Design the sequence.
C-alpha cells in the first residue's frame, strides 16, 4: 500500500490557515497541492455559502480523488489535524470524513491513519461488504472472508439462501401498502406470531397461542422486557456458571443481582441454586445445549427446576438459542413443553437459525402473564420493523425456514465432525476436545495451567477468533478452554490449516 | 353478509366428540356436514400422525373453504367452542385459526364471531392491507381507507414515494452480503449515522459527529436509552403539561417521577419548572412545535432552560418529532443548536418524516456522554435491523429524503389550510380553531364546558378519530379541546364532510 505523509497538499502555499482553497463547484483540480498548476483560481472555504462547510470539504476530497490528485492508497490528514489546519469545528470535518468513508472514498485504518481507498471502484454507499479483518492476515482458503475464522455466535453465512431471501424481501417491500406504514402491532406482526406458534409446536413441542408470543429485537431485548415486566432492581436471579456473558451484562445494568450456579454434565446444578439462593425470583437456563458447555439439562434437573419455580412462584427463563442444532439424535423438546404451571418464559431467536444482523427474537409468556407483557410492550413500544417481520413470515409460510434448519442441521453436523477431526489431529495432544451432542462451537481444553485468555489474545492478533472459557465464568475455579465456532469452517483442510496456526501460537 | 349459525357442520352425526372427521390428505370434501354425501370415508383427527393436530385442523378448514363446503361469509365456531367440541388444547385451535386468519381464509369479527372471509381471493399471508375501520363506516371519499379520518401521529400515507422506496428496498435486500449478516453495529449503521449527521447540520443547525448519533427503534426506545444511561429510579423530570402521553408512560414504568410544568404561548414555563423542582435531573421539551399545543419555545425560554440545566448539571431532552413541519416561515433551528455546554440530548425520529411503521429514530448525545451511551447500547444491543437502516441510508444519500420533506412541508401547509378552512366553516361557531405555525394536527376548542373525552368517544364509535386534550393533560384545569390530524385529509370537500359528521355528534 502506498502511503503519503506529505500533508502539505492540504495547505495553501504561504497560507497556513485556509488550506483547502478553491472556488465554485468545479474546484476538484484546484487543490493547493505542491504540484498544482500555478495561477489556478483559489479561494477560501466559504462559511456563508449555501453549500454547508462539511459538504464543501467533502466535495473537494471527492473531486480530488476523482481527478486523480489524490490516489488510491494515499494517506489523508486525520480529522483532528485537518480541524486544526482549517480552524473549523471538529464535527464539520467528522461529517465530511464519514460521508467519504460511507461512500467508499476513504478508509480509516486505526493507528495507521486514514487513506484513500485502495483499488477504488465506483459504488453506492449501501450494503457493501465490509471486511472485518485484514485480508492479508486471513488464510486465502477461508470463506466467507468478511468474518474471522472461528467467530462465535454466527451461523454458516455462506449457506444462507440469500437469493430466496432477496426475492421475498423485494416482494414484501413492493407490497407495502399505506395500512402497513402506520404503527405496527407492538407485540409483533400477527402473521409472524402465528408462524412462530406453529413452528414451536412442531419443532420444540411447545403449545402456545400467538397471543402469548412477543416479537423482540434480540435476546437482550427479550431479557430487558422480562425484567421490566416481572423483576425489579435488587432481585436475585440464578445464572449458569459458566454462562453467556451478555445475560449477566443486561441484568447488571438493570441492577438485578446474578447468583452464579455451577454447571456439570447434567447442566445447571439446581440443588446448588436452591442452596445458594432459595428465594431467587428467576433462573436463566440454556437447557438444550448449555451455553457454552453444550451439555443438556437432564430430565430430573428439569423437573427439579420447575418444581422449585412453582413452589417459590419464581420464573424460569429458557434461552433456547440453538435448540435445533443437535447432531447425535433428534432435538430435545424445550423445557417449556414440560411447563404445566406457567412458570417458564421461553426466549427464542432468529439470530442463529437465520442470521444475527436480522435483530429479531421472540418470547413466549405464560398465558396469565400476557396482559402484563402487553402493558409493558405498549409502554416501550417493542417490536421490530414490519418489513423484516414480513420477510421472515413469508420465509416461514413458504417452507424455507423449516428446510433451511434441516439443511443446516446436516451441514453443521458435517462441519463439526470435520473441524473436530482436523483440530484433533493437529492439536489433540495439547488440547483435547470435549464431545458434545450439539451446539455451534467446539470446546478445546487447555492443559498444564495455560491461560485461555492469553491464547485468545495471541489468536486475535493473528487474525483468528476464539473465546476464552474464563471470560464466560463468574467463579474463579473454571478450567481453561478455547471456544471455537465451527459453522463457517468449510472443509477439513481449512480446519487443519487453522489448527496449525493455533499450534504455532501455543 | 351471510352468516351460518349451524355449527353441527363440525360434529360427526351421532358422534359428539371427534367432530372433524376425515382421513388422509384429501379430506376436504369429507367434512361431517349435514349435507355431506352418505358413506364418505371419515376418521377422527389423529394425534399420533406426522402432521401435527393444528395442521390437520387448518388443512380441513382450508380444504372445506377451497371446495366450497364453507362459503365466504359463513360463520365458523369460536376457538373456545371448537376446543370443547374436539377435546383438544386451546393452543392447538388458536394456532390453526391464526394461520387461517393470517392467510386470509377467515376473519375474526370480535363479538360477531369468526367468519370465512367475504369476497375471498387467493393471496399470500404478507403485507396485505388490513382495514383498521369498517369500510361501511368511513366516508367513501376518504383516502387512504386503511386508517381512520384524523388519526393522530401519521404523515400523509398517500403521498409517500412508495415506488422509490420499493426500488431501493429491493436493491438493498439483493445487495445483502455475508458481512452484512453478522451482528450489526449496535449504535446504528455507520453510513446512516453519517447521513443523519449531515442532515441535522443542514436542516436543524446541529453540528455533531456521527459518533454522537445512536440509532434507536423509536422515540420510546430513545427515552428508555437516555434513562438507562443518565437517570435512575426516583429521579424527577420536568414534563410539559399538556404533553405527549407516552413520555409520561415510559418514565412511569422506569419509576422516574414526572413533574408537570405548564405550557403557555411561549412554550414550557421554565420559571415554573424551576419553582416546582429546581433540582430535577432532566426536562423533556418539544421546542419546535409543542406537543400538542404547537406553540414554539421562545428564545428567552430556550436560554433560561439551557442556563438552568448548565447550573444544575441537569439534562434537556429535546423531542424534535416534527421540527420540519412549520408553514408560516422557515423551520426554527433546533434547541440543540444553541447548546454550548453539552446539556441537550436531541431525540429525532423517522416516524413523522417517513412513516411510523418503520420503527427508526435516533438520538444525538453530547460528546462527553458518547462513551456512556456506547456502554449502555452494547449492554442492551440497540439498533434496528440492517435492512431498514440500509434503505433509509440510500433514501437519504440519493436525495429522496430532502425532497420528500420539502414536498410534505408544502402539502401539509395546503392540507392544513384546507382542513382548517373547511372545519371553520362547518364547526367554527361551536369550536374555534387555534392558529399555529406548524405541526401535523389542528386544535379545536370546545366551548361551554363540553367534554372532549365524551366527544372523542362518540367520534370513535362513528369511525372518526380524535384525541382529547384532557388525555394529554396531567393537571386538571386544562381546557377541553379536540386534536385532529390533518395530514391525511386530501381535500376541502372531504374535510367539510367530516366536519359535518362531527357537528352531528356534538
Sequence:
Amino acid at each position: 500500500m502506498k502511503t503519503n505523509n506529505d500533508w502539505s497538499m492540504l495547505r495553501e502555499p504561504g497560507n497556513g490557515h485556509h488550506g483547502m482553497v478553491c472556488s465554485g463547484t468545479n474546484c476538484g483540480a484546484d487543490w493547493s497541492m505542491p504540484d498544482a498548476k500555478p495561477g489556478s483560481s483559489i479561494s477560501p472555504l466559504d462559511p456563508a455559502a449555501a453549500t454547508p462547510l462539511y459538504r464543501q470539504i467533502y466535495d473537494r476530497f471527492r473531486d480530488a480523488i476523482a481527478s486523480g490528485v489524490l490516489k488510491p492508497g494515499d494517506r489523508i490528514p486525520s480529522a483532528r489535524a485537518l480541524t486544526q489546519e482549517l480552524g473549523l469545528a471538529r464535527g464539520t470535518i467528522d461529517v465530511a470524513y464519514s460521508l467519504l468513508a460511507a461512500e467508499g472514498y476513504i478508509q480509516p485504518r486505526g493507528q495507521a491513519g486514514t487513506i484513500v481507498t485502495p483499488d477504488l471502484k465506483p459504488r453506492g454507499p449501501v450494503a457493501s461488504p465490509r471486511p472485518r479483518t485484514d485480508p492479508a492476515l486471513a488464510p486465502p482458503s477461508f470463506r466467507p472472508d468478511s468474518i474471522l475464522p472461528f467467530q462465535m455466535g454466527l451461523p454458516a453465512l455462506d449457506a444462507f439462501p440469500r437469493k430466496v431471501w432477496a426475492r421475498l424481501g423485494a416482494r414484501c417491500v413492493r407490497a407495502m401498502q399505506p395500512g402497513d406504514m402506520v404503527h405496527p402491532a407492538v407485540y409483533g406482526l400477527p402473521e409472524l406470531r402465528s408462524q412462530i406458534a406453529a413452528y414451536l409446536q412442531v419443532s420444540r413441542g411447545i403449545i402456545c397461542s400467538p397471543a402469548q408470543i412477543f416479537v423482540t429485537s434480540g435476546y437482550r431485548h427479550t431479557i430487558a422486557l422480562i425484567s421490566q415486566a416481572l423483576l425489579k432492581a435488587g432481585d436475585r436471579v440464578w445464572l449458569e456458571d459458566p454462562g453467556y456473558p451478555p445475560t449477566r451484562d443486561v441484568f447488571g445494568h438493570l441492577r438485578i443481582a446474578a447468583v452464579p450456579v455451577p454447571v456439570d454434565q447434567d447442566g445447571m446444578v439446581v440443588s446448588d441454586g436452591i442452596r445458594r439462593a432459595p428465594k431467587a425470583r428467576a433462573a436463566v437456563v440454556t437447557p438444550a445445549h448449555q451455553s457454552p458447555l453444550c451439555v443438556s439439562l437432564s430430565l430430573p434437573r428439569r423437573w427439579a427446576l420447575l418444581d422449585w419455580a412453582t413452589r417459590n412462584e419464581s420464573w424460569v427463563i429458557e434461552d433456547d438459542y440453538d435448540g435445533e442444532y443437535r447432531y447425535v439424535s433428534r432435538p430435545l423438546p424445550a423445557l417449556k413443553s414440560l411447563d404445566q404451571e406457567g412458570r417458564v418464559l421461553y426466549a427464542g431467536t432468529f439470530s442463529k437459525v437465520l442470521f444475527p444482523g436480522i435483530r429479531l427474537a421472540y418470547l413466549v409468556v405464560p398465558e396469565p402473564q400476557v396482559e402484563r407483557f402487553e402493558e409493558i410492550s405498549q409502554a416501550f413500544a417493542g417490536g421490530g420493523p414490519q418489513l423484516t417481520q414480513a420477510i421472515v413470515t413469508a420465509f416461514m409460510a413458504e417452507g424455507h425456514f423449516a428446510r433451511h434448519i434441516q439443511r443446516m442441521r446436516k451441514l453443521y453436523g458435517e462441519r463439526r465432525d470435520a473441524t473436530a477431526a482436523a483440530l484433533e489431529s493437529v492439536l489433540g495432544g495439547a488440547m483435547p476436545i470435549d464431545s458434545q451432542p450439539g451446539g455451534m462451537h467446539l470446546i478445546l481444553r487447555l492443559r498444564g495451567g495455560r491461560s485461555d485468555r492469553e491464547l485468545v489474545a495471541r489468536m486475535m492478533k493473528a487474525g483468528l477468533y476464539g473465546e476464552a472459557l474464563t471470560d464466560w465464568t463468574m467463579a474463579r475455579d473454571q478450567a481453561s478452554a478455547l471456544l471455537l465456532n465451527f459453522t463457517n469452517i468449510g472443509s477439513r483442510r481449512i480446519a487443519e490449516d487453522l489448527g496449525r496456526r493455533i499450534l504455532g501460537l501455543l
Notes: The mean pLDDT of chain A is 82. The CA atoms of residues 288 and 323 of chain A lie 5 Å apart. Chain A has three domains: 7-116, 162-398, 403-503. The radius of gyration of chain A is 27 Å.
